TrEMBL record:
Gene3D superfamilies membership: LysM domain, Zn peptidases
Family that this chain belongs to: Belongs to the peptidase M14 family.
Active-site residues annotated for this sequence: 319
Superkingdom, natural source: Bacteria
InterPro entries named among the record's database cross-references: CARBOXYPEPT_ZN_1 (IPR057246), ENP1_M14_CPD (IPR034274), LysM (IPR018392), LysM_dom_sf (IPR036779), Peptidase_M14 (IPR000834)
Entry cofactors: Zn(2+)
Ranges of residues in domain Peptidase M14: 58-349
Keywords carried by this UniProt record: Hydrolase, Metal-binding, Metalloprotease, Protease, Zinc
Name under which the protein is recorded: Gamma-D-glutamyl-L-diamino acid endopeptidase
MF terms in GO: metallocarboxypeptidase activity; zinc ion binding
GO biological process: proteolysis
One CC-aspect GO term: extracellular space
Any Pfam family hit: LysM
Amino acid sequence: MMHTVQFGETINKVAFQYSIRPFDILLFNREIFSEQQYIYPGMKLYIQNGTFRQDQMDWLGLTEFNQHDLEGMLLRLQQNGVEKDVIGYSVMNKQIYAFKIGTGKKKVFYSGGWHANEWITSKLLAYFIYELSEKQKDQQRWHGYSVEQLLRDSTLYVVPIVNPDGIELVQQGIYKEHPHFRQVLEINKGMRSFDHWSSNIRGVDLNHQWPAGWAKEANESPKVPWPRHYSGQKPLTEPEAKAIYNYTNQHQFDYVLSFHSQGQVIYWGYNHLEPEVSAEMVSRLSYVSSYLPIKTAESDGGYKDWFIQHYRKPGFTIEVGVGVNPLSPDHFSEVWSNNCLLCLEALIL
Ligand SMILES: [Zn+2]
């Protein structure tokens, strides 16, 4: 049969949908010469002997994750009682989704997918909130935690994908019909590979945009739009960062965890402004994840920096996984096993 490539698809994803190997796509499509090659919307692929998969959840770590996968989970999240909110729109007008579960007084916020080539954090958070809602529905314990109790004490807010446009760029590359085709190629100096891209689609780093030592960080970073580390012309120019800014101010979270990859470390301080309790909290996060606590990253302008400075409340950056970004899909099992416990423990810090 013929498959027409959709927005956000990769070779791994098409193979997964039809329960075949990525290599089978290479075998029957001569223009595809590598499993890592980008495939563009509208492209036709010949699929030999595929059976369409009903359940699109990928626990085996075979595929990438992006906005389309998250949208594919919306119905089941809703059926499990998870509240959905659209807190803003990306440069390319994609929804920035926030989810809420629980009724407790303590308000906790997890965010991921800030950096385009760190999409594995988005999959972690989307799967986590889904599993949490499954366990709640069935009144199960999860790794010894009473989910019912957790969600009576705490309310969890999650934005799995802060940077949907960038994530799609890293997974699908650029093609003529892409609305930012020329601009992206210019920023990328004509290169067609985007593995190193962490910015949003306009070449602004969404975790360099925050009014906490912004000028200092901007001064030491690229001065024009760049695949990574460009801070923008001033703080919070980008709609994705602005959406998180408004959402954070609106909800007054007790503490926040922002997820990045990679390094298996947890940053927890900023300019000695973090409250004393942060040290104890990070030691618990470290214990359950086996990730190393590090007080400061010697950098400024990040979301958790701003949160600590502005609210004088605990903020953490979790660097999941180890390897070179983007981590390949099969890193998911390590990321999941270490951070599933961390995400549970973090609900009751
Ligand atoms: Zn990052």
